[in-house]
Amino acid sequence: MTRQLDLADIQGNIVRAYGRHNYPKARYFFLHIDDALAGRKFVEAVRHKVTTATRWNRDPEAVGKPGGAPDVTLNIGFTFFGLAALRLPTRTLQRMPEEFIDGMKSRAFILGDSLLELPEDDLTYGNYGTYDRIGLEKMRPAAPSFDDKWDPIWKNNNRGSEDAVHIWMSMNARVVDFTDTPVDALENQTQWLRDLCTEVGGVRILATNGANGDQEYQAASAVFDNVEGIGMVPTPREHFGFADGIGDPVFAGQLPAKEEADRARGRGKWMNRKAGWEPIATGEFLLGHPDEGQELPPTAAPHEFMRNGSFMAYRKLHQNVESYRDYFSKEAKKFAAVMDAPIDEAKVTLEAKVVGRWPDGVPLETHPTYAQWQDYRTHLGLNAEDPKAALAAMAHYRASAAINDFKYGNDITGIRCPSGSHLRRVNTRDYLDPLNNLNGANPDAKTQLNKRRRILRRGLPYGDPTPGAGSDETEQGIAFMAICASLFRQFEFVQQQWIQYALDFNQGNNTCPLVGNHEVHKRHIIPSDPKSGKPPYICDGLPQFVETRGGDYFFLPSMTALRMIAMGSIDPT
């Protein structure tokens, strides 16, 4: 029996990835609170518009009507100092998680954004020049240069400053049918937010987004294809050309009972051959519910304030598309010569060996060679000459469990999918079962060590929505959001231990070849099947494909908590 959740108390972006539910356009706003009373009035007005996790009437005719999917969604979160600006009780603030109090900028070394490790005997705690462990103000040495390329809104996000980010608000919108133009409701709701700030006073939209610091919000958009005979169609691809956000975890209570078992295949936890896949425990993503350790995640008092809430890491990740194109164009020539393959085949194979999937999302683990991939595409109808038929076949495949229903127990050596590839790092599945043997397969491998490290992927690409457009200097990338119950145990662990370090994958210090920091470690190893007679291939001199442009940590309150904030009635005793 699936867990029953109070969906009307949970913010909708925790349960739904809006981009995959026909909301391909988004605006992310960041605000500052100058006055606590005005801030509470602001929260009271916003909470009535917040999109909850309540299930929608799926009838297309119900869109925009009561009970149906809205034209535009709205959700809200707060930084630690945003909660402090709202004057939450000290007892509540003190018991917030340490990493949330620190904020993302102060965790730069942990996250791999900076390779400068600060002295262990320096007790300074938090952002540069702010609070130490006993609450006194103390200056760090000169700040490192890891944030030189950050957008002004994040580079100047210093606690206590008049431009500190206190509130995150997101609006996701539908588009006019078969165009890449958002519905009018998006601009209408944006104007409502502007007017609300003017009305309550004391709350400001920080209009310093973007590389030049002159944008009112961070705009985001799916990458669109112009399909013959149909029009503009949103895709799940990011700017490097690969389908993204496919293997998002499924947790207990997230979906209706009839859907949960099927959607959990490959996206939940592997139990055994008889039971198969099951949803991950609710408490891995929602506070106040049992997690995979059969414990309630630690929360600040009172319990009601944090129950049904979650934490979110917001990161603006810039993609150097020109460096990506140039590197793989040159490397493909060498790879083609070694593997005795045509250039076009070598290039897409090399990219897939870095990512862990083929560009359309087909996993290497199930179809590891170019020929197998093409045969599978034909079998699925993805190579159909009719664009409409091919599009329908792709939609059917991406909605099926087949795209995620696989494990690594039979590929411990990484011959099918390289152990250091991006996909295996961010979701290790059963690869880290302690009983696995590097010299053999383990079909009974479990996902026990992986299920405590999962995150919910949210967000959308930003920049030109045209496939393949741009250079390293133009604005494009992913507005990345990771939602989880523990930023430290889930998001930060994956980012530090699996993306920026590779001992768990027998790759030494090699960072993730796609999103890792390549300042020092620039290598990715692609094993080769001994039966092929081909040697392993080493991608060396990896440039920096992805760069952080800023971000922070946010608490996503429940509807109950939003009401408590608005009323100023949070009593930790």
Question: Into which percentage range does the β-strand content fall?
Answer: 5-15%
Task: Please report the total strand number as a whole number.
Answer: 15
- The number of helical runs is 17
Compute the separation of the termini in Å. 35 Å
Which regions have little confidence, pLDDT < 50, spanning 5+ residues? Answer: 117-143
Rg estimate, integer Å: 23 Å
Summarize model confidence as the mean pLDDT.
92
Largest sheet: 5 strands, antiparallel
Report on this model:
The chain is an alpha+beta fold and 573 residues long. It has a domain at 7-117 and 151-314 and 551-566. It has 17 helices and 15 strands. It has helices at residues 12-15, 36-47, 80-85, 90-94, 98-102, 108-111, 152-155, 184-200, 257-263, 303-306, 321-339, 343-355, 370-380, 387-399, 422-426, 487-499, 559-567; strands at 25-33, 75-78, 167-173, 203-205, 218-221, 224-227, 231-234, 269-270, 277-278, 310-319, 456-463, 476-484, 524-526, 537-539, 546-556. Helix 2 (36-47) packs antiparallel against helix 17 (559-567) and helix 11 (321-339) crosses helix 12 (343-355). The longest helix has 19 residues, at 321-339. The protein is globular and about 70 Å long. Residues 117-143 have low confidence and may be disordered.
List key phrases describing it:
573 residues, alpha+beta, four-stranded antiparallel beta sheet
